[in-house]
Design a protein that fits this description.
globular; alpha+beta; single chain; 214 residues; 8 helices
Length: 214
């Protein structure tokens, strides 16, 4: 993948350690898979915006405000998406089972331990309305996971939790409820043309799978 190649080149230039997780690390990815990235090194958090721009301007940039660990979620207009974490140390379990080391500077020792120690990430691309951006991101991710043939029950619950926190009287039960929920969101809040276009393309792909989505 082009973005992964650019990430590796950037990490070599900046002397950051780069770890790859998820389906890409196992070689089971498909066109709907996300990049799970962990970066480690001196002042990585100061380079976040440059890293985000490696694949162009993002159309969605979000964090899950309901979680203590603030992973940065990034979506580009072509549907490529990345979950980015910056860690001080990484658990032995993650090193052994969940992540593949793609690059490590010669003089850098990866700190390992019983648990992950994550750093706060921030970006100029984060909207002031963090809840809305997170909700849009998880709607997008639900579609991608569905199209990838993955279980979406956790994402359905996550979306409903955001609806509840935002005092929105909407509840989804399955993928078939998403089109109307997203349409309501677009009518209530500002959603960029690029996001609408990407989401509508994915919804059209889902309609081919689920004929009962109107």
């Amino acid at each position: 993948m082009e973005l992964l190649d650019k990430l590796k080149e950037y990490c070599i230039e900046k002397s950051f350690a780069l770890l790859l997780g998820g389906s890409f690390s196992k070689g089971t990815q498909n066109k709907y898979s996300d990049l799970d990235i962990v970066l480690m090194g001196k002042n990585v958090e100061g380079s976040i915006d440059e890293i985000v721009q490696l694949h162009g301007e993002p159309i969605i940039t979000a964090i899950d405000v309901q979680k203590k660990v603030k992973t940065l979620y990034i979506v580009y207009k072509d549907g490529i998406y990345m979950d980015l974490e910056v860690r001080e140390s990484i658990s032995n379990e993650d090193v052994e089972n969940n992540f593949k080391l793609l690059y490590k500077p010669n003089n850098y020792v990866i700190a390992k331990g019983d648990m992950n120690v994550c750093k706060e990430v921030n970006s100029k691309y984060l909207s002031k309305d963090l809840e809305l951006q997170a909700l849009i991101y998880f709607m997008f991710k639900l579609l991608m996971k569905y199209l990838a043939g993955k279980d979406i029950s956790g994402l359905v619950n996550k979306i409903n939790n955001y609806f509840n926190d935002m005092k929105i009287e909407i509840n989804i039960n399955d993928i078939k409820d998403l089109p109307n929920a997203f349409l309501w969101l677009c009518n209530k809040y500002y959603v960029s043309y690029e996001v609408k276009n990407l989401m509508n393309t994915l919804l059209d792909n889902c309609k081919e799978e689920l004929k009962y989505i109107k």
